[in-house]
Amino acid sequence: ALGTDTAGSGRVPAGLNNIVGWKPTRGLLSTEGVLPACRSLDCVSIFALTVADAARVFAAAATRTVQLDRPRLAGAFTFALPQRDQCEFYGDSASANAFSEAVAQLRRLGGTSREIDFAPWRAVASMLYEGPHVAERHAAIRKFFDEQHDALDPTVRGIIAGARRFSATDAFVAATRLAEMHATLAPLWST
Predict the structure, then answer these.
(1) Which member of 36, 68, 74, 155 has the greatest number of CB atoms within 10 A?
(2) Are 95 and 89 a contacting pair, CB within 8 Å?
(3) What does the CA dihedral 136, 34, 31, 181 come to, rounded to 10 degrees?
(4) Taking a C-beta distance cutoff of 8 angstroms, is the pair 171, 132 a contact?
(5) What pLDDT digit, counting tens, does each position of 165-186 carry?
(6) E strand or H helix at 46
(7) DSSP code for 94
(8) Distance between CA 10 and CA 18 in Å, rounded?
């Protein structure tokens, strides 16, 4: 199945339902016909039972040919974990147990965990819901929102209504901050 993923709405539900949520690089799958959440960040995502199935769907749907790397989890590799005090399960012991089991499985496969400061990653995510990017969400459905806002899910309505707090200046400041955070966090991927 196809979905959308701006800030995890393809990958997170997939993970919670024991399926694969594949989020390609922006622009590799057309967003034609997708009701935008945040047009500059939206991606069409793929839901599948296996990574191989998701890769086949991606290959068929991609707007241009892309050579997929085929990494193997054989031998040593490193994976990142939030610092222990930054893990949040909101009282859901099943999620906490599943997380612990996933970490154990990665270690059994030869992985070495490396704790990272997750705060900058959380800050990036919060920009989509609590920062000026919500103005882009409002712009995508402005007429509908302004005329029929009661028809929206209350949580979604509250997020999008937050757009009114921000100016164009705020949006440019946030874009600059996002670029700075990208530059700061990018080296982590090589380790």
Answers:
(1) 36
(2) yes
(3) 30
(4) yes
(5) 999 999 999 989 989 998 988 8
(6) strand 43-48
(7) H
(8) 13
